[in-house]
Fold:
Amino acid sequence: MFWKTGENQQLIKPRLALLIMISVSIGFKPFETLAGPTSKFHKLAVAEAYDDDDTYESIVPATKATKKTKQNKYYVADDCNTKTVSSKGGVSLKDLVSELIEENKLPQSNKAKVASMKTTSKKSQPAKAPAGMSKKPSAKLKVASPIASYTSKMIASKNGPSCRLHPILKRYKTHAGIDLAAKTGTPIVSVMDGVVVFSGTAGGYGNLVTVKHTLPNGKVIYSKYAHMTTKGKGCALPKPGTKVKQGQKLGCVGSTGRSTGPHLHFEIRSEAKGGTVYDSKHFLLSNGELKLGKTCGRK
Amino acid sequence: MKHVAMILGSVIFSIATVHAADIAKDAQEKIEKWQDGFMNVCQNAFEKEAGAQSSKEYCLCIVDSHKNYILGKIKEGEKIDVDEHLKELKALYQNSSSPVATEDDDEAGEPSMADIDIDLSKACLDKLKSPKAKKEPAKK
Structure:
């Protein structure tokens, strides 16, 4: 690491450590952006590890951090967001954990998980992944954000599939996906490995890409990316039959079809056309868990 | 060779611009013809659902919003069936069966006229409710 070398090492270490402590305590997550264009939610799990000298040691995905655990590492986790903190560094761990639980809107029961992790790490045993986060990557799906700049917290603030009411006509209308607003041209990536089964214009969807995914249990689902633009460099739609990897670019955010502004309309369905609407927001936040989406006929 | 390409490019660009302008002009004419009929239908629906107050303002606002929406799509070079859009919009207000209608077309999936109008009418109501909009008539 660059801060471990050089003449100013003694100065940089404590300053960097202090900066990170302040960032964590005010809820600022500078390292979430490190995930980059291929960010996956599991990569948002950031470990802030401090060594025995209270100096900043490394920033690594939580899964790697668990292997490197030395002592007094604590986990606050839900399905998609894990924080590792140390009792060292001059900040009250109790306060930090409470703050992280509150900040991530996690259930209070996570405090018990934190206590449990404390016990195991004190015995210098290899740290186990907390509930909701599998230690075997293949056992649980890892789902990428369809727009890299969207963190789990930002997605959590959006409305998932819902039943919308027209303000004047009092007409209920199902909204089958999640709308993620972004600038025109923002890259859209595949949430999982799959095969493109449709790409082109589809009425109100505008330019649409549908990707077929097979879950580990054999179940087939389809992710839909709507209102894409085809204008601009690298915004051409992939051809049907194209195999795509998780995080691979599918196109760009636009406002084609029935859309009043640039955004991505993202859906998860059981069929390429029609079919059951799954809760796309829950799917993203829970790393691929399927739950029926709320529709006007199914509240 | 470069000159030829440049001239050809500018000719194509100007033809496309003229063509887009023609489409926009045509759309505008269609909207103007359609407006009167829609205003009646819209005001009836508004009065039935939300009371007579500001029904005209609301319906003019909806016409404006959809006009901007259609012209915006044309400007962006997107194909939009203006006749179909106007027909669907009128039907949406015409078929508003009180007190509550449900349009559960999630089987078809694709966003309908109600989807776009929910966004536009919300923005329209917000505009009417805003203090700036309320102050304007007083100035006159």
